[in-house]
Amino acid sequence: MVSVAIIGSGPYGLSLAAHLNPLDVSYRIFGPCMEAWEKHMPPGMFLKSDGFASDLYAPGKGYRLSQYCAEYGIPYAPVGMPVKRATFVDYGKEFQRRLVPRLEETMIVRLSEVPGGFELETAEGERVQARRVVLAVGITHFPYLPKVLEGRPRELVSHTFDHGPMDAFAGKRVLVIGAGASSVNAAVALREAGAMPELIARTNRINFHTKSDDVRSLIERLRRPRSVIGTGWRSKAAVELPLVFHALPQDLRHRVVALHLGPAPGWFSRDGFEGHVPAHLECHLQEVTETGSTEAGSKVKVRYTGPDGKPGEMLVDHVMAGTGFKPLLSALKFLDEKLAAKIRTAEETPVLNTYFESSVEGLYMTGLASANNFGPMCRFACGAKFTSKRISKSLQKKLRAASPALVEHAEAAASASLQRD
Which of 52, 204, 251, 359 has its CA 20 to 30 A from that of 194? Predict the structure, then answer.
């Protein structure tokens, strides 16, 4: 039985594995490397986070995005220069090759409890037992569709996460729902692929994220300090005080995560969107139905109410929802029913202790699944730094309780690793 199994190999899973290396903890990590970033986002998109906030994390000096870009001659700046999605994916894969070489790029299709720990089943049928399991699945299982869109055929209604390249929509009229980064990025990518996108949203304006200034006055730095998730004291506190956030009342935590840093496309997507993609704002969807098949295929009829309250109607080839992600426990279909029933939830999302451990001893959750516990930082890749440090510390404590002699060896190995760094 391996000590730890990590399910997921995005920024959180890779960063945690890198933190376990010097502890000499036996672990296995599963999942296609950086898959969500590589296959479920438009190829030409940019990260909304600045360069300094787009690292993966390892103990000591680690391996930063700036170092990767310098080695491969890729333009880089800590702020003000957007990071290409392709650059981030390639960086993540290089991080994996250097620091997590034992990654097993297979999917876990079932997770259940067994005496002394857990059992994982891979897509190939292998069964692996582990004393502790960390779910680092990112957003992969959590795309959210409003009820008005549920139950429709995927060829007619989909989520932006269902797509990478948009070439299949060339020549088609596509209605994109939402006003955030996913929606705007998808609309721009659709237009560039030869589609005819339009956007519909409840908001009265598209709140494009502002470009970071590389030089800021002392007054501006004091008034709106910079953090990895944005400027302002609220964002700064969310980054610096996640354990204080964990201690806040549950209702307040959930409300802050839902409202802080709302939908905001990157500043760099404005030029490709404004003047090119028709936007229907202050509109509310009422009904989405499939029409009869024609020679060109089925259509989607969309009924909505406009800003004046009057009804409107559109006939499109496809509806694509950029309606975000919700970390509902029920979305983790690979969880055994008995195991899932034992996990405590609040508003259908996991309740975690201060070490990211669920109510099932030995089962940890990271990333978006932990945001309602530790704050909005965990909605972004940059949250992997605090998370990986915190979970590895917890695992080390449990290791100490299980075998003092083994801990002494692990600590000596960690000290030697840090000295090499």
Answer: 204
Q: Cα separation of 41 and 161, whole Å?
A: 7
Residue 241: count other Cβ atoms within 10 Å of its Cβ: 15
How far is residue 209's CA from residue 182's CA, in Å, rounded to a whole number? Answer: 13
Average pLDDT estimate for 50-65:
94
Nearest to 285 by CA among 318, 313, 326, 322: 313
- Between strands 300-305 and 127-135, the pairing is unpaired
Same domain for 314 and 402, yes or no, is no
Q: What is the 3-state secondary structure (H, E, C) of 224-273?
A: CCEECCEECHHHHHHHHCHHHHHHCCHHHHHHHHHHCCCCCCCHHHHHHH
Average pLDDT over residues 138-144: 96
Strand segments, DSSP code E, in 60-162 are: 108-114, 117-122, 127-135, 157-159
**Measured between alpha carbons, how far apart are the two ends of the chain, in Å?**
31
Residue type, 107: M
Q: What CATH number does residue 408 fall under? A: 3.50.50.60
Where do runs of H (alpha helix) occur along 100-249? 181-192, 218-223, 233-240, 242-247
For residue 375, the tally of other CB atoms under 10 A from its CB is: 27
**Structural domain harbouring 288:** 150-208+274-321
pLDDT for 403 equals 62
Helix (H) or strand (E) holding 36: helix 35-39
Tokens of residue 366, six digits: 């990271």
What pLDDT was estimated at residue 407? 47
**142 in Cβ contact with 325 (< 8 Å):** yes
- Residue the block writes with tokens 């939402």: 178
